[in-house]
Design a protein that fits this description.
This protein is α/β, with parallel strands linked by helices. It has helices at residues 40-43, 45-58, 64-67, 87-99, 112-119, 163-180, 188-195, 201-209, 221-230, 234-257, 272-275, 279-292, 306-316, 321-330, and strands at 8-13, 18-23, 29-35, 74-81, 103-110, 128-133, 137-142, 148-150, 265-270, 296-300. The two termini are 26 Å apart.
């Protein structure tokens, strides 16, 4: 597929899936495609970028450096990528994408910046904080003068806690200890094995450890945790509240670093855990932020993250506000 007009290649790559969209500068979506998860820390940079290439092949875009394309597809590649947590990682990923000859200019951002951009009102300056809580957790902030606040977000070694994976691990920990007497009683000790067709936590732990349950089974634990919390279980509810506290701490620290703590500013929430809008989680977040950052405007973004990548690309090529509105309308 050849594109002669200036355009944006928007890429959002998460741990579980990758989305791409080729955009006209007026905000129209020319084509789009999807592929699997983007995990350079497991596969290496080149193999991870191959996943982006697969999404583009699904979209009908073929060629690039590997295929000997005469020209790139886009003026600007706006790539918002999971696991691009340090500048060195962004640089390596950008270098590999440039090698593929997909665009004349390539900009790589951590994927949380896509969430932030998607959550800002049309025509608003790039100013605010976003927290994503999906499989993992991360937070970024930015101001119009180019300053940013961010966290390494590579797990416990960088001080991070939570997300669906972290909540699942904690729920299993408390349930196992409740059953064998080392910990406080909790309904989790009954609900978790029952969900997986196991007679006890001992049996569930064994099945998980020996691989008798599929690798993705742990993704089912966090929704169960929220259901048990909603029914009033103190242990489950304490975990949900701990997650809310962690999200608020990340957001307020980012706001403070940027000098925005006492200003009217968007705080954008996203990711599968927050998009589910569990009252015990989201309600506590709003309550705590009202106390610590009373002028913050909290919103939850459920639009596909590739929208944010596309909006960042339209910003870069100078598209008018109408283009941004058109792109938002496309993604609902």
């Amino acid at each position: 597929m050849g594109v002669t007009l200036p355009s944006v290649l928007a890429i959002d790559a998460g741990n579980s899936k990758t989305d791409v969209a080729l955009l006209d500068p007026d905000g129209s979506v020319l084509c789009s495609g999807q592929a699997g998860g983007f995990q350079p820390f497991r596969t290496g940079v080149a193999a991870a970028v191959d996943v982006l290439a697969e999404a583009m092949r699904v979209a009908g875009l073929r060629g690039g450096a590997e295929g000997g394309a005469a020209a790139p597809w886009a003026d600007h590649v706006s790539a918002c990528l999971a696991n691009a947590d340090f500048p060195a990682e962004e640089w390596k990923l950008a270098r590999e994408i440039r090698r593929r000859n997909w665009g004349r200019v390539t900009a790589v951002h951590n994927d949380t910046f896509a969430l932030l951009r998607a959550g800002l009102p049309a025509g608003a300056e790039p100013r605010g904080v976003a927290v994503v809580c999906g499989a993992g957790i991360n937070c970024v902030g930015m101001t119009p003068d180019g300053r940013t606040a961010r966290f390494p977000a590579v797990g416990r070694i960088s001080g991070d806690w939570g997300g669906g994976g972290g909540l699942a691990e904690e729920a299993l920990w408390f349930a196992a200890r409740a059953e064998d007497g080392r910990g406080e009683a909790t309904e989790l000790a009954r609900a978790l094995p029952a969900h997986f067709g196991q007679e006890s936590m001992y049996a569930l732990v064994e099945a998980l450890h020996l691989g008798r349950l599929p690798a993705g089974a742990r993704h089912e634990v966090a929704p169960l945790l929220f259901a048990v919390a909603a029914a009033g279980d103190p242990v489950a509810l304490a975990l949900v509240h701990r997650q809310a506290d962690e999200i608020v701490v990340m957001a307020t620290v980012a706001l403070e670093r940027l000098g925005l703590l006492a200003e009217d500013v968007p705080v954008v929430l996203g990711g599968s855990v927050l998009a589910a809008r569990h009252p015990q989680l989201n309600g506590r977040i709003e309550e705590l932020l009202a106390d610590r950052a009373p002028r913050a405007r909290v919103s939850v973004v459920t639009a596909p993250p590739v929208l944010g990548a596309g909006l960042l690309g339209l910003d870069a090529v100078g598209s008018p506000p109408l283009a941004h509105r058109r792109l938002r309308a496309h993604f609902g």
